Amino acid sequence: MNLNLRGQAIARVCFDAALTLLTSGNYELRVENEAVLQLSGGDHVSFDPEAPDVAAPHLVRLNGDVIAEAEAGKAGDLVIEFESGTKLTVRPDDDHEAWGLVGPMGRRAICMPGGEIAVWRGE
Question: Which InterPro entries does the annotation name (predicted)?
């Protein structure tokens, strides 16, 4: 499923109990499950959003980067590719919501436990 984020820049990167990416199109993506960041040079960095440690400097560099593709797979996996060549991948979790996307006018997509994607179209 195309999440229609192409061309939006990352306006803010936030760390709390999750990784939150805010876009120039007023979307908020929260990553709440373990994720993998593939860097433009090909290296992979796995991280827990509650304690991103080694990945934090790479995640901060996403600020200002532009989304080239954002897709949610049928199994609940999220893949976001950036113009810089960096790629963020989040796999579903059997017991918890892995990621959630909230946009303007009530648009929402959430990866439910087990990988089912719930979608609200909004107004």
Answer: DUF6188
Four-residue CA torsion sign, 13, 24, 42, 72: positive
Q: What is the pTM of this model?
A: 0.94
Side chain identity, residue 92: P
105: helix, coil or strand?
Answer: helix
pLDDT by 10s per residue, the chain, length 123 = 999 999 999 999 999 989 999 999 999 999 999 999 999 888 999 999 999 899 999 999 999 999 999 999 999 999 999 999 999 999 999 999 999 999 999 899 999 999 999 999 876
- Nearest-angstrom CA–CA distance, 69 and 83: 9
Query: Which tokens sit at 123?
Result: 């107004």
